[in-house]
User: Which sequence fits this backbone?
């Protein structure tokens, strides 16, 4: 009867170990599902950030071109004003 009890205990230990292993496998599966979901969310966020960066880059280029055009226009206006002031000075000196 002792060997039957030992066999029964060994079976219970084995079943308990199997249950523990099964729980660990299910937990690993859940962790993998969570990791995949987080990866998918991160990829979506990355795509949105890349799109925003592209839009901002395009806007930055546009603003840079506008700034250059305004600087050129300012230089042209400055030259015209300086020319007019020179002419006014010449008239006043006469």
Assistant:
């Amino acid at each position: 009867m002792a060997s039957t009890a030992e066999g029964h205990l060994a079976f219970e230990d084995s079943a308990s170990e199997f249950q523990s292993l099964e729980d660990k496998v299910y937990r690993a599966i859940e962790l993998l599902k969570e990791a995949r979901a987080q990866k998918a969310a991160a990829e979506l966020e990355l795509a949105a950030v890349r799109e925003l960066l592209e839009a901002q880059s395009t806007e930055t280029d546009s603003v840079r071109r506008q700034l250059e055009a305004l600087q050129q226009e300012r230089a042209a206006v400055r030259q015209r004003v300086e020319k007019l002031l020179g002419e006014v000075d010449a008239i006043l000196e006469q």
